[in-house]
Design a protein that fits this description.
6 strands; 14 helices; about 300 residues; 4-stranded mixed β-sheet; alpha/beta
């Protein structure tokens, strides 16, 4: 039997997670036995040679179900079925796949996030039939899926670490983006201003000609930052005579909060969890290159005889 795709592994993984806290290494052999995989299939590696195919697919099955609230991670590297996952199993489903998970609002928002202009994003599925998308479209869709997963994992890991770690992360990100003058200067200023509603202040440029005030709130994804919090931050800026501020959160901002900052004389930037994760990826903070793939195209100029 060939190695099952990650969707076919969802139900077996959830059943094992319902037994109690598990690690991927705890379930891989049991799943391999269930599907009667050969030793060669169990050892088969991804083209990168960095991970076994079965391990990788179990990870994706587990990750997707976690975004649908069927599995949770009580601590690093471990997972267990939630009450929603156990309830689903009680209904004796014959299969769990992306189509089923799409009925969950949280998963649907993760899997098909909206664009900034509120128009639904339209990307072909990585599993689409060959004639449903061009090879380039399939590559783009696969890349987007990996990026969405990385974004979610970054926010989960931030939530598992301490407030001090989050403060240091903001320092690292601001310096990577060119603020703070130097890492030493940024670290000395962020979190040490002592002003109400202000968590830190950094230089906008290396000469310190202008300063940016920072508020950083590590909230759960369900805890939306509302207008009162942002208004309090802006009030602190006014009291300091400051004209620029950045409010960073691991969750999201309410529409009222976003609308409020549009009409201010001060320049206030709101960075929500998704934007924070995207900036971390873009500037290499908390991530590292795993694999780079290059694609060559035909050089028409080379073959031209004109």
């Amino acid at each position: 039997m060939t190695i099952p795709d990650y969707q076919s592994l969802m139900l077996p993984v959830l059943r094992l997670a319902a037994e109690g806290e598990k690690r991927v290494v705890d379930v891989v052999d049991r799943i391999a036995d269930e599907f009667e995989l050969t030793q060669e299939e169990r050892e088969e590696m991804l083209p990168s040679g960095r991970q076994r195919v079965l391990h990788n697919r179990i990870h994706w099955a587990k990750f997707y179900m976690s975004k649908a609230g069927l599995i949770t991670s009580p601590r690093r590297g471990r997972f267990i079925a939630t009450s929603a996952g156990r309830e689903l199993l009680a209904g004796n489903p014959q299969r769990i796949d992306v189509t089923m998970l799409m009925s969950n609002t949280s998963f649907r928002e993760f899997y098909k996030p909206e664009r900034a202009d509120d128009e639904p994003a339209s990307y072909p599925s990585p599993n689409a039939e060959p004639d449903a998308a061009t090879p380039e479209e399939q590559i783009e869709a696969a890349f987007r899926s990996v990026q969405l997963a990385l974004r979610a994992e970054l926010l989960e890991r931030i939530a598992q670490n301490s407030p001090a770690f989050f403060e240091q992360l903001i320092v690292d990100l601001l310096v990577a983006m060119g603020y703070g003058g130097s890492h030493k200067n940024a670290a000395e200023q962020l979190g040490r201003s002592g002003d109400g509603g202000i968590d830190g202040v950094v230089n906008e440029d290396r000469l310190g000609l202008d300063r940016v005030y920072v508020q950083a709130k590590r909230y759960a994804s369900t805890n939306t930052v509302g207008r009162p919090d942002v208004q309090g931050f802006v009030g602190s800026l006014v009291g300091l005579g400051a004209t620029k501020g950045v409010f960073v959160t691991t969750s999201s901002f309410s529409p009222q909060a976003r609308d409020f900052v549009k009409h201010l004389s001060q320049r206030v930037i709101l960075i929500d969890g998704q934007t924070l994760a995207d900036l971390m990826i873009e500037h290499g903070v908390g991530v590292r290159l795993s694999r780079a793939i290059e694609f060559n195209r035909l050089d028409e100029d080379f073959f031209s005889e004109e």
